[in-house]
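REQUEST ID: PR-0412
SUBMITTED BY: lab tech R.K.
PRIORITY: routine
TASK: structure prediction, single protein chain
INPUT:
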Amino acid sequence: MNSNSQSANPPDTYSQRLADIVGTAIALVTLILPVFIISHYSSPDVQNNQPTLTYHLTRSQK
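STATUS: complete
OUTPUT:
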């Protein structure tokens, strides 16, 4: 058996290339889509609706 001979089944470069493109597209969508969703639904006018807590301390006189 010669080591120079080509194999009977050549590698399917088209399906490998397609898998690389699809994988890259999925990775980009996974990384970019959440950022767009968060920026779309976040309000630019953030209001602080929490009441301020004020404690009045009295001193006891001796």
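NOTES: Residues 13-41 form the longest helix (29 residues).
REVIEWED BY: pending
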